[in-house]
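Bumping my old thread because nobody answered last time. Still need a sequence for this structure:
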């Protein structure tokens, strides 16, 4: 797949939005996480799955450098699990939305937005399930046995329920942006 200059530029802009939002992570993880998930979905729609996957991998790295998570410092294997969770979210969304938008029912704008949201919801649940299972049931018990109980409890919440909530909010926000921007002639890549 050939990546165009326009895709690279738009992905760079989307990365800048992610980085700016990550500076506010300490203010609200729900706001930051929702913005990151929204940008991941929009970048996937407008630039393709390769660019969406690229941002899925880069976003956790920039978040770690900006916020310096003590949990990830203590158990570095969490970082690849977050990357994989983001990849699951983006790729499941891409393939499900791509399949459903080709159906005859998707020709109506409102139905298309609902299919967009449905694809994001499936991706969000799979992302949260993967991250909750891999981080909370595999990585932390085996590699974070010496972590304080308070940190383990926070991780269980952060890498399951919070991930689900922020991915769902990000999906709805992306659907709103997608619907409004596409009205003005922006088209998505298949």
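Sorry it took so long. Here it is:
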């Amino acid at each position: 797949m050939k990546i165009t200059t326009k895709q690279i530029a738009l992905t760079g802009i989307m990365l800048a939005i992610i980085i700016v939002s990550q500076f506010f992570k300490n203010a609200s993880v729900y706001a930051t996480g929702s913005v990151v998930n929204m940008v991941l979905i929009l970048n996937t729609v407008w630039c393709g799955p390769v660019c969406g996957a690229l941002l899925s991998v880069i976003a956790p790295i920039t978040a770690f450098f900006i916020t310096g998570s003590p949990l990830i410092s203590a158990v570095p294997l969490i970082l690849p699990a977050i990357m994989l969770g983001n990849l699951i979210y983006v790729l499941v969304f891409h393939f499900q939305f791509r399949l459903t938008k080709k159906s005859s029912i998707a020709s109506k704008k409102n139905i298309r937005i609902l299919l967009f949201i449905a694809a994001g919801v499936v991706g969000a649940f799979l992302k949260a399930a993967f991250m909750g299972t891999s981080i909370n049931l595999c990585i932390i018990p085996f590699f974070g046995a010496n972590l304080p109980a308070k940190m383990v409890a926070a991780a269980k919440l952060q890498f399951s329920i919070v991930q689900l909530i922020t991915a769902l909010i990000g999906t709805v926000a992306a659907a709103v942006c997608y619907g409004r921007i596409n009205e003005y002639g922006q088209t998505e890549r298949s």
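The first helix runs from residue 5 to 22. Let me know if any region looks off to you.
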